[in-house]
Automatic annotation (TrEMBL):
Keyword Transferase: yes
The Aminotransferase class V domain, residue ranges: 15-316
Positions that bind substrate: 345
Keywords: Aminotransferase, Pyridoxal phosphate, Transferase
Family per similarity comment: Belongs to the class-V pyridoxal-phosphate-dependent aminotransferase family.
GO terms under biological process: glycine biosynthetic process, by transamination of glyoxylate
Protein name, per record: Aminotransferase class V-fold PLP-dependent enzyme
Modified sites of kind N6-(pyridoxal phosphate)lysine: 200
Molecular functions per Gene Ontology: alanine-glyoxylate transaminase activity; L-serine-pyruvate transaminase activity
InterPro entries membership: Aminotrans_V_dom (IPR000192), PyrdxlP-dep_Trfase (IPR015424), PyrdxlP-dep_Trfase_major (IPR015421), PyrdxlP-dep_Trfase_small (IPR015422), SP_NH2Trfase/AEP_transaminase (IPR024169)
Positions of transmembrane segments: none
Name of one Pfam family that matches: Aminotran_5
């Protein structure tokens, strides 16, 4: 293993991949089966049906053997044509990457900027759509939980803004770091394509990604002209009708998905979301008690998935992370793009409990001391909150 290996379990507290529960790991190591054989169709049909519940949708969910980036591309190439205009909200690094991808695919992107300290600018979306009298904008793309900053946008408000402007644009939403950790309603919020991935709230290893597809998006795919082959929804939907896939699916990852979804439903999704909210609040209380600043400034957009923490000027977040990894065997998320070395990110998503949070925050607090970063005690504030909110 790595040279920093110390005794005890590694703390994987980056904001995804998250910790994979042992029960999911046990499901993964079942024998790989014939993906064209009679048993596979039953598994495929069951998993496809169950997956819809996590998106809160009655329509199709496509499962790709790919990372989230693949599902980003799938959402764009299935619904849009070269030169189409897409309105994107630059909430942080991941929104930026999706925008760059759209540009490379031949779409015209227009960016609504933020200061990377809050979620999507809903008023800005409405104003821009109202001004677009000729309906040149074909899609609005928003990252639900911006993993680089720890800001969660209100997708229901984005929907209302589009409706208030009376605009026909498709709504594309990235839930790669929110699905399974934060309440999400594909149908109710009128989302056209929801993009997601396996390695965060769904508690799986990296390797699967998703598109939930509305009837309107499906209709758009009939005339959309961007080149697509591997990502094409059409052969997927045709094969999925009987529980199969047009090419070799990630068989063992589907066993794992089957089990992980069972675990989420057994706990109850509302309980899962409340657990993440509570861990987010406990974390922010520790950060404030340390005398540090949370990157997200708008309390309405605080992320239940992760907390990005700003360090005072003159202190290196990367050096702090390196110290914590070396001394305490814990991985924390790095600052991305303009936040490189300015913030570190604490992941509190997926299969995660109170004592894991206490251990995580304890590791950060000891790391702050070891790295010589001025701070006051903070762990106690988190523990006090957890005790009062059992
Ligand atoms: N979008 C968001 C919000 C993410 O957090 C990530 C990964 O962290 C991605 C997109 C990219 O997904 P992947 O790395 O699985 O391709």
């Amino acid at each position: 293993f790595a040279e920093h290996h110390t005794a005890g379990r590694h703390f994987l507290q980056i904001p995804g991949p998250s910790n994979v529960p042992d029960r999911v790991l046990r499901a993964l190591d079942n024998p790989t089966m014939d993906h064209r054989g009679p048993d596979f169709g039953k598994l495929g049909a069951r998993v496809l049906e169950k997956t819809k519940k996590i998106f809160n949708t009655e329509s199709h969910v496509i499962i790709y053997p790919a990372s989230g980036t693949g599902a980003w591309e799938a959402a764009l190439v299935n619904t849009l044509s070269p030169g189409d205009k897409v309105l994107m909200c630059e909430t942080g690094w991941f929104a930026h990457l999706w925008e760059e991808m759209a540009g490379r695919l031949g779409l015209l992107t227009e960016l609504l900027k933020t200061d990377w300290r809050r979620g999507a600018d809903v008023e800005g979306i409405e104003a821009r759509l109202r001004a677009d009298k000729n309906h040149e904008i074909k899609a609005v793309a928003v990252v639900h939980n911006e993993t680089s900053t720890g800001a969660t946008s209100r997708i229901n408000e984005v929907r209302r803004a589009i409706d208030a402007a009376g605009h026909p644009a498709l709504l594309l939403v990235d839930t790669i770091s929110s699905l399974g950790s934060v309440d999400y309603r594909h149908d109710e919020w009128g989302v056209d394509v929801t993009v997601s991935g396996s390695q965060k709230g769904l508690m799986l290893p990296p390797g699967l990604s998703f598109n939930a597809v509305s009837a309107k998006a499906l209709k758009a795919s009939e005339t959309a002209k961007l080149t697509r082959s591997f990502w094409d929804w059409k052969p997927m939907i045709a094969s999925n009708a009987t529980g199969y896939f047009p090419y070799t699916p990630a068989t063992n990852m589907l066993y794992a998905l089957d089990t992980a979804l069972d675990m989420l439903f057994e706990e109850g999704l509302d309980n899962v979301f409340a657990r993440h909210d509570r861990h987010g609040e406990a974390t922010r209380r520790a950060v404030r008690a340390w005398g540090l600043e949370v990157q997200c400034e708008d309390p309405r957009h605080y992320s239940p998935v992760l907390t990005a923490v700003r360090l005072p000027e003159g202190h290196s977040a990367n050096a702090l992370r390196a110290t914590i990894l070396k001394k305490f065997n814990m991985s924390l998320g790095n600052g991305l793009g303009q936040l490189n070395d300015r913030v570190f990110r604490i992941g509190h998503l997926g299969d995660f409990g109170d004592l894991q949070l206490v251990g995580t925050l304890g590791g950060v607090e000891m790391g702050l001391a070891a790295a010589g970063i001025p701070h006051k005690p903070g762990l106690a504030a988190a523990m006090q909150y957890l005790n009062g909110n059992g």
